[in-house]
Amino acid sequence: MEAEAAKLIGAGLAAIALAGAGVGIGHIFGNYLAGALRNPAAAQSQFPNLLLGFALAEATGLFGLVVALIILFVF
Amino acid sequence: MSSTEHNAAAAGAAQGEGGMAIDPMHQFEIKRLMDWKIGGLDISFTNASLWMVIIVCVVSLVLLAGSTKMVPGRLQSLGELAYEFVSNMMRDILGDSGRAFFPLVFTLFMFVLAANMLGMLPYSFTVTSHIIVTFGLAAFVFIGATVVGFAKHGTHYLKLFVPSGVPSILLPLLVVIEVISYFTRPISLSVRLFANMMAGHTMLKVFAGFVVGMGFLGGWLPLAMMVALTGLEILVAFLQAYVFAVLTCIYLNDAINMH
């Protein structure tokens, strides 16, 4: 296999990591919504935690994207 | 109609021929504005340096401009809002013991926030999309927190690596894991901010390429996507600054209160 083709395939594989980020973000917002509907009074106080969890979950997926970009543009 | 179609076809052809006509990484390029050298050391004033100066100027203007009044004006309200936001966050995480570190956390938060927000302006430069900038900030936080921990607790600070209430068989393994997780903190802190900024701006540029490439008729869909993505990116710009500040507080909390 040509090195160029292998590079593209590798970058595509590395981008699969974003699937995990999607699952994680969906999980966080889904559970927040479920909790907020059960106890709307407590929802507002947990909003910062929601944002923190969203950012942390998104970041792990982006690590995979960084690997993809490094493969594409550095090597 | 025919002229617009012709334009669209021309744009599509230009992209097809050029290959790298729209390079999403071009926006991160560092250009030397002034060539300065001391000995073998390259200390040129680059566009990144210029934007950091602009960030400091903007933050200073927002927070310090004008006289403070009893009934605040718009800029003063913004400053008070930012102050109270960071202050409340610090009180929640650190308690009252960490008040001495408020200026540090506030400065970091405002710098990262301004860098991310100014980076959203067209034709601007996002300094936080460079790993060296974010790693510099993160390494400063990490070394600072470690120094504070040792200064406050002495060698007792090493107990941070020994979780309490664990069976002694598991202890060696857990100590190793704790040490590794402690030393990956600056990496995860810096890569999180850098990756978010770089991925976001690359994505915007890729969609901008679709708008040009699909021409007048097909370009509206990616354009609408771009408007939505710009909104998301502004949210992410704020969130990442917030997360950076929160994690700084958590690391300082480890150093000051030791869990």
Could you describe the 3D structure shown?
The complex is a heterodimer of chains A (75) and B (259). Helix content of chain A is 87%, strand content 0%. Chain A contains 4 helices and no strands. Chain A has helices at residues 3-14, 17-38, 40-43, 47-73. In chain A, helix 1 (3-14) runs antiparallel to helix 4 (47-73). The two termini of chain A are 16 Å apart. Chain B has 8 helices and 4 strands. Chain B has one domain. In chain B, strands 1-4 form a two-stranded antiparallel ribbon. A two-stranded antiparallel sheet of chain B has the order 2-3. Chain B has helices at residues 2-18, 47-64, 74-94, 102-119, 131-153, 171-183, 185-218, 220-257; strands spanning 32-34, 37-38, 41-42, 45-46. Chain B has 259 residues and is mostly helical. The A-B interface holds A 48, 51-52, 54-56, 58-59, 62-63, 65-66, 69, 73 and B 25, 89, 188, 191-192, 194-196, 198-199, 202, 236, 239-240, 242-243, 246.
Count of helical regions of chain B: 8
**Sheet with the most strands, sense and barrel status of chain A:** none
Summed up, the domain count of chain B is 1
Strand-residue proportion of chain B = under 5%
Spatial order of the strands in the main sheet of chain B? 1-4
What structural class results from the helix and strand content of chain A? mainly alpha
- The count of DSSP E runs of length 2 or more, i.e. the number of strands of chain B, is 4
Topology:
The complex is a heterodimer of chains A (75) and B (259).
Chain A: H1 3-14, H2 17-38, H3 40-43, H4 47-73
Chain B: H1 2-18, E1 32-34, E2 37-38, E3 41-42, E4 45-46, H2 47-64, H3 74-94, H4 102-119, H5 131-153, H6 171-183, H7 185-218, H8 220-257
